[in-house]
Design brief:
The protein is α/β, with parallel strands linked by helices. The chain contains 17 helices and 20 strands. Pfam families: APS_kinase, ATP-sulfurylase, PUA_2.
């Protein structure tokens, strides 16, 4: 809303909410002009018009909805009839205010959540984060571009020689200026942090035609077509006239023309990348897949120079070191008495003997006493306890350590949250289901918990009157009714060694 000014006391007293990642990315694009002509999140009128006509109510073409959801409990404090009481402050994940939304439209979307439509206004200067010099607005970038055609490339993965050859060929064919847009709202689809992606692209800059490089807050919405349409519109806002497809679904949606790159292969006769069909099969080398590149990095093997420029390889090796040098969360889950803690201690002892890993053990009982004192055994508190464990473990792994976690963690959603925290920290995550049957766990009953639960003196006992959601995504399943403690520890160590997380040659026997 043009000219929308809010008193400081209104912002101070307004409710706050940290949106999801893609909503924060959408917010940044709304604020910067990347979603021009949009100035805010769509309300029901706009959504209805888009669904019926593919246009906004004023007739402006726009491809897909740009929406915001917030918990209904948060938006209850808003009053759409009072301009001074309908403001919601949006924050980043750390709670720092980013923008205010004038919630002119609020409606129920799903259980416990409400949609919010309205104009947005930035709070503060938005000047935080790495590579600020590359985070230019569309208006600033368009002012830098020379007249004529502009070839846009959205690089959501590192640029290896085949991609660089495709870019060079397209730039020569188009005879236009090259604009490289690097998505920095999240990491890459392969798990590389956004900052590492930027470094790897900059490392390839001397292999490109002269280019303008810009960091753009693009994030996936979980819908390939929607993402493609929005990316095309953002590219157009930055001045792109022709957009080079990167292998994903690419659609113009009223934006720049999309160019499909040639399929290239490496010609071993002269070391050049050219059209695949132009090279006899015996001299042809195909580009490595993302999985092949990851496997080489995980093992600590060098990326072949015919495929990856050395400067790019150095950046990728720095940010994806061999697994045995990378942070790891080993998360053991199972019923009380299943043997989780015993296995975790055995693995920790073995690794302390070799000295190859810095190990932190987060046992369920110890965490309850030291980190989660006061929490009950309700579902909400159990989830909070597991999230706390997951956060601490991810921080341990973020700095290259190995965290061995051994909570019951009965609910799948909380375990998935712990996995996501580890992956967000750039670490590995190994889920181990200690699947010892309830009858065996109850027969052991070292703590007397099952006996109290059966006698009605204890409620919320997992396996008795509270469910245990068995993992369907476990990386390893151990049953201590069939394995000795030593065998279970060896099985977990063997699994870690085969996956490259530890050196198999250094394990005690």
């Amino acid at each position: 809303m043009s000219g929308w000014v809010l008193p400081d006391e209104v912002l101070r007293d307004a409710p706050t909410y940290a949106p999801r990642r893609y909503e924060l990315a959408d917010l940044e694009l709304l604020l910067s002009g990347g979603y021009a002509p949009l100035t805010g999140f769509h309300g029901r009128t706009e959504l209805s018009s888009l669904a019926r006509r593919g246009r906004l109510p004023d007739g402006t073409s726009w491809p897909v909805p740009v929406t915001l959801e917030a918990p209904t409990a948060v938006v209850r404090a808003l009053d759409t009839n009072n301009p001074l009481q309908r403001v919601l402050v949006l924050t980043d994940p750390e709670g720092a205010p980013v923008a205010a939304v004038d919630a002119t439209d609020i409606w129920a979307t799903r259980d416990g959540m409400s949609g919010i439509g309205g104009a947005v206004r930035r709070i503060g200067d938005g000047g935080h984060g790495p590579f600020r010099r590359l985070r230019r607005s569309p208006e600033e970038v368009r002012a830098l571009l020379p007249p004529g055609r502009v070839l846009g490339v959205i690089t959501d993965r590192p640029l290896h020689r085949p991609q660089l050859a495709q870019i060079a060929h397209a730039a020569r064919t188009l005879a236009g200026h090259l604009l490289v847009l690097i998505p920095v709202a999240t990491g890459t689809p392969d798990g590389l942090p956004a900052e590492a992606l930027v470094r790897s692209v900059l490392a390839a800059r001397d292999r490109m035609p002269p280019a303008t490089v810009v960091a753009v807050p693009l994030a996936s919405h979980g819908d390939e077509i929607r993402d493609a349409l929005l990316r095309a519109r953002v590219a157009g806002a930055y001045g792109v006239t022709h957009l080079l497809s990167t292998g994903e679904t690419m659609m113009s949606g009223g934006g720049p023309r999309v160019i499909i790159p040639r399929e290239l292969a490496y010609d071993s006769r002269d070391g050049q990348w050219r059209g695949r069909d132009d090279i006899p099969p015996r001299f042809r080398r195909l580009a490595l897949s993302g999985e092949e590149i990851d496997n080489l990095l995980d093992r600590g093997s060098p990326l072949p120079e015919w495929h990856t420029p050395p400067a790019v390889a150095r950046e990728l090796t720095r940010d994806r070191p061999p697994r045995r040098h990378r942070g790891l969360v080993v998360f053991l889950t199972g019923l009380s008495g299943s043997g989780k803690s015993t296995i975790a201690r055995g693995v920790a002892d073995a690794l302390l003997e070799t000295g190859e890993r810095t190990v932190t053990t987060l046992d369920g009982d110890v965490v309850r006493r030291e980190l989660s004192a006061g929490l009950t055994f309700s579902k909400a508190d159990r989830d909070l306890n597991v999230r706390r464990i997951g956060w601490v473990a991810a921080e341990v792994a973020r700095h290259g350590g190995m965290a061995l976690c051994a909570p019951i963690a009965p609910y799948a959603a909380a375990r998935a949250a712990a996995r996501q925290m580890a992956e967000d920290a750039g670490a590995g995550f190994v889920l181990v289901h200690v699947a010892t049957p309830l009858a065996i766990c109850e027969a052991r009953d070292r703590k007397g918990l099952y006996a109290k639960a059966r006698a009605g003196k204890l409620t919320g006992m997992t396996g008795v009157d509270d469910p245990y959601e068995e993992p369907t995504d476990a990386d390893l399943v151990l049953d201590t009714s069939e394995l000795t403690v030593e065998s279970a520890v060896d099985s977990l160590l063997d699994h870690l060694a085969r996956a490259g997380w530890i050196d198999p040659r250094r394990q005690p026997r």
